[in-house]
Amino acid sequence: QLQLVESGGGLVQPGGSLRLSCAASGFTLGYYAIGWFRQAPGKEREGVSCISTSGGRTKYADSVKGRFTISRDNAKNTVYLQMNSLKPEDTAVYYCAAGGYYGACAAYEYDYWGQGTQVTVSS
Predict the structure, then answer these.
(1) Other CB atoms within 10 A of residue 119 CB
(2) Apex CA 105: angle with CA 40 and CA 34, to 5°?
(3) What whole-number distance in Å separates Cα of residue 28 and Cα of residue 21?
(4) If you average pLDDT over every residue of the chain, what do you get?
(5) Where on the phi/psi map is residue 73: left (φ > 0), alpha (ψ -120 to 50), or beta?
(6) What is the pLDDT of residues 4-59, one digit of tens each?
(7) Parallel, antiparallel, or unpaired for β 10-12 and 46-51?
(8) Helix, coil or strand: residue 38
(9) By the 8 A CB rule, do 83 and 119 touch?
C-alpha cells in the first residue's frame, strides 16, 4: 500500500528549529517530485517547498526562503524539511506529497499525500 508518513512536528518557541521527515512506504520515492505544503486554520493550503526527483532543483515560498531547506535521501526513501528561525506565522499542519513531475509547486500537481504533522510556533 502506497503511503507517506510525516514526522518531526511539535511545539517550538519563535526562533527555534524543527526538522520534518517524510517517509515513503509501498513505492520508491526517488521516482517522484516531493512537495511540502502547509495549512493554517481558516487558510488555504499553500506550497512551502518542492524538490525534483534527483534533488537538483528546489523551490521555496517567499515567506520561507533563507529559513527552510528541503532535501532528500532517496536511498532512505525519505525527504526532509529543515525549518530554522521559526515564526508564529509558520504555525500550521505540514503535509508532504508525491507527484509525477516537478512543476510550479502547486497542490494540484501532487497525487499522493500524507496525513500531516502539526507545527506550532509559540512562546
Answers:
(1) 22
(2) 90
(3) 16
(4) 96
(5) beta
(6) 999 999 999 999 999 999 999 998 999 999 999 999 999 999 999 999 999 999 99
(7) unpaired
(8) strand
(9) yes
